[in-house]
Amino acid sequence: MYRAREGQWAFALHRISGLLILLYLLIHVVSISLVLFGANAFTVLHDIYGFWLFRVGLIAVTGGVLYHGFNGLRVAIMDFTGWGTAVQRQLWYGVLAISLIGLLITAWVVVPRILAGH
User: Fold this and answer.
1) What is the C-alpha separation between 62 and 94, in angstroms, rounded?
2) What's the domain range around 65?
């Protein structure tokens, strides 16, 4: 039975995180453009963004951006150095650790605000 290794998981997560970042940016541009329809439309949408589910989404977006950025650096190291491919597995685990730490820090900041109702 075939089992995916770190390289395949890194590739898949890199593509998925890139697509989710693109989706977030598209939503962001559309929400900013609502100012063309008046301040009320803009304000109503941004009040919806205060809902707890959107704030949890902010935590996920932060984790995705961190993973995508640091994994991109890992790919650049593998492409432009002679030693990068030899340690690509360790680099990927480092990317996961950094992304998880950043995700936890973001959650530590955002979750109390969600619970407090801000």
Assistant:
1) 17
2) 6-116
